Amino acid sequence: MTGGDGDKSGIAGGPARHIPVLLDRVREAMAPAPGDVIVDGTFGAGGYSSAFLDAGASVIGIDRDPDAIRDGRALEQASDGRLKLVHGQFVDLEEHARALGHDAVDGVVMDLGVSSMQLDQAARGFSFRFDGPLDMRMEQDGPSAADVVNTMERKDLTRIIGMLGEEKRASSVSHAICQAREEKPFETTLELARVIEKVVKRNPKKASIHPATRTFQALRIYVNGELHQAAGALAAAERILRPGGRLVVVTFHSLEDRIVKRFLADRCKTRGGGSRHMPEVDIPPPTFEFIVKGNQDASVEEITDNPRARSARLRAGRRLDSPARPLDIHEAGVPRLASFHGLGG
């Protein structure tokens, strides 16, 4: 998968087909073994799942995109029952695992990027590299990006574009969107990209990045509730992993990486601070220990072979015996955004 900051090819990455990112590092961090049960929360094209199956593990492959589940059926049929595919949200991974008879699992892996197959299909409306319907829905259900840009209040659009796209000219972009939609509602990706180009100029130092990249990223994250899903899935993983189980997460965007970083830092913490002037405070026992201290990036060789890996970061932890704790997703880094037909909050 991919998802990062995009380039001239249109929102993120080039036209290459799906290549699993950081596969060797994911396999090393997960250390799959025969008999293990691993939840692949973002099945996609099944790159990680295939590697775990090859190692003798069983896999529960979850994906929100019905196309990914459809395309994965051949692998499922060839797995001798060791791969079970589930169409659903990865925030519900605990419920999906229990429904298949597993009250605890040995591993949870999540790749938080959008898949290459979604980006490369104009009809899915994720990219301005092609002209397609302004959609961006991974589940192919619920409010679309067109619904958001055509009806949301300007102040809410500004916050979404600024927070989720980290677009410095968010106010100008939302103003241009609101003016344009008075004349004609947005229907296609190129209609929106052309309006944004009028108010956001190319950075000469980053000429390959299209001016609409950050706004498209913001809309995609909002429409799919990506940060809410990520934070909720971390909490679900904490509940369903058995002691010794492994959590491996690959991120592509600073906001989602911050959530994973904060979660693991909090859950791995063994001391409550303290200094010469301040006493230590009591903290709950750690629920994880680091497998990877900090994060791991793609190698130069992998980025050369797969440019979409350039923004990927891997973080990983091993589950300890302590009981799972409640998680406040906003304290974990999910920004508060306007509610819109089940989105945001």
From TrEMBL:
UniProt keyword Transmembrane helix, yes or no: no
Single GO BP term: methylation
Known catalytic reactions: cytidine(1402) in 16S rRNA + S-adenosyl-L-methionine = N(4)-methylcytidine(1402) in 16S rRNA + S-adenosyl-L-homocysteine + H(+)
Molecular function as annotated in GO: methyltransferase activity
Compartment(s): Cytoplasm
Keyword rRNA processing: yes
Primary location group: cytoplasm
Ligand binding (S-adenosyl-L-methionine): G46, G47, Y48, D63, F90, D111, Q118
Entry-linked InterPro entries: RsmH (IPR002903), SAM-dep_MeTrfase_MraW_recog (IPR023397), SAM-dependent_MTases_sf (IPR029063)
EC number: 2.1.1.199
CDD domains per record: AdoMet_MTases
Record keywords: Cytoplasm, Methyltransferase, rRNA processing, S-adenosyl-L-methionine, Transferase
Protein role: Specifically methylates the N4 position of cytidine in position 1402 (C1402) of 16S rRNA.
Family: Belongs to the methyltransferase superfamily. RsmH family.
Protein name: Ribosomal RNA small subunit methyltransferase H
Species per Swiss-Prot/TrEMBL record: Pseudovibrio brasiliensis
Lineage start: Bacteria, Pseudomonadati, Pseudomonadota, Alphaproteobacteria, Hyphomicrobiales
Gene: rsmH
